[in-house]
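Researcher: Good morning. I'm working through a list of sequences from a screen, and I'd like to move beyond sequence-only analysis. For each chain I'm collecting a predicted structure so we can compare shapes side by side. This is the next one on the list. No need for commentary yet; just the structure.
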Amino acid sequence: MVLYDFNGEVGIYLDDGLRKNIDTKIIPDLKKKEFDVVFAVTGRERIGKSTFAQTIGGYIAKQLGTNFDMSNICMTPDELQKRIEHSSKNEVIIFDEAHRGMSSSRSLSEVNNILKNLFMEMGQFNLCVIVILPSYFMLDKYVAIHRTRGLFYIYERGRWVYYNEDHKRMLYIKGKKNMDMNCMKFPSLRGRCYTKTPLNRELYIEKKRESFKNSENTGKRNKYITQRNILITYIVKKLKQTQVSVAETLTDHQCPITFQDISLIIAQNSDMYPESSSFKS
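Model: Good morning. Structure tokens for this chain:
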């Protein structure tokens, strides 16, 4: 193993074999014109994925001479997209929504689209993006096979194995159907991961807590909007109230909504009460 210091944190352990591969393969590539590197880090919950990603992210940033702090950690797809779009050259950006398990299909779809659609930005600024997720097979085929440089699989606490481009391609093809990470022999590049990272743990926990809070608020807001839209559709299509009268009633109760917004809501819920007609005036 080797030690490195960063951000005032001293004695951060990194596996020596991994360090050699980063120094000889990853750093030179990130210094090339319009070249990016995307890594996936996967493994079951609470096994140390975030700690490991921060350790290698900090080392890569140190070797590139770039900033690496809590602003380099993104916990929502929106935050990841904005961070990539406003990045500086040679930055390391970690997408860490593993604490929520990437449980929503919307979140997973957005991450896949970001990695596909922001290819030019990532290459232009020579970014290193590390995506932490519970399962490698949650990535779509193009991202998993063509957009990631390699896969780190933490198979037990403190131990990882690395799949290069050929190995992860075989893994995805063989294991996707049954979500089976053990469908082939582990590659030869493997090592240990340790508990100390270049980032302040208290600040990381606070950011994670805020992300949870914001996620809960967003979920509640989306739920209330869905309930509102269903009720408006019911009132117009089933109770035969006009869209204008609904808009006027809501406005009278200090909850203004435009006639155009109601029309859009009705159109989006056209599968509700298809036998009913909508009266507009």
